């Protein structure tokens, strides 16, 4: 792996995050699969969605270790973590002033690919939770309709975001080759719109199951305990807001890399 020796480079931080995160994710997904398969002996669509999402975000992280021994210029890897990790070879975490024109083009290529995989992974994560809600509380007609409405909202804005990402420039390769003749959409409004919708969808996913929990025939203590379990959705909501702020900062920064 090519290393930027600039001490202010974020390259090493990115690599560490791309190794640690898939390990932790794989641990939790493994526990879930084992429990659902061998303990409860019953799996649902939410479990399959969780596995697909895990593959798209984590499965290929060991390739990062082999990066110095292989050529990845033409390798398409579906794992978001490995894409970002390998992106440190092409400018992720570097200062733009330290990058050659070739490396800047390669950086934009990896941004293009990893952004697409990120959106697919994000869709899988949100759909997994919503399918879980349907399995747990789907007997309630109003709740079922509300959950499907949120799922359609998630599909709609993420699919629109995906199309904007892929076809935002004409020709497409102008995204990573700015000097190519053609044009690109002005993405300022898109960044604000999609970032806001991502935060809103996380808020919906967090709030959606809470009324059902408090209608269950449980003691107040048990209801509070179950509510705390679903409070994990609040963490996702906070992370979405923080990411949105960082994305806006990066979008308006002069040193975007």
UniProtKB/TrEMBL annotation:
> Cellular location of this protein?
Membrane
Q: Which InterPro entries match?
A: Rhodopsin_dom_fungi (IPR049326), SAT4-like (IPR052337)
What is the membrane topology listed in the Swiss-Prot or TrEMBL record? Answer: Multi-pass membrane protein
Q: Which UniProt keywords apply?
A: Membrane, Transmembrane, Transmembrane helix
- Transmembrane portions of the chain: 12-31, 51-70, 77-97, 109-133, 145-167, 191-214, 226-246
Q: Where is the Rhodopsin domain?
A: 31-257
Its chief place of residence is membrane
List the record's Gene Ontology CC terms alphabetically: membrane
**Superkingdom of this entry's organism?**
Eukaryota
Identify its protein family: Belongs to the SAT4 family.
Q: What's this protein's name?
A: Rhodopsin domain-containing protein
Organism whose genome encodes this protein: Alectoria fallacina
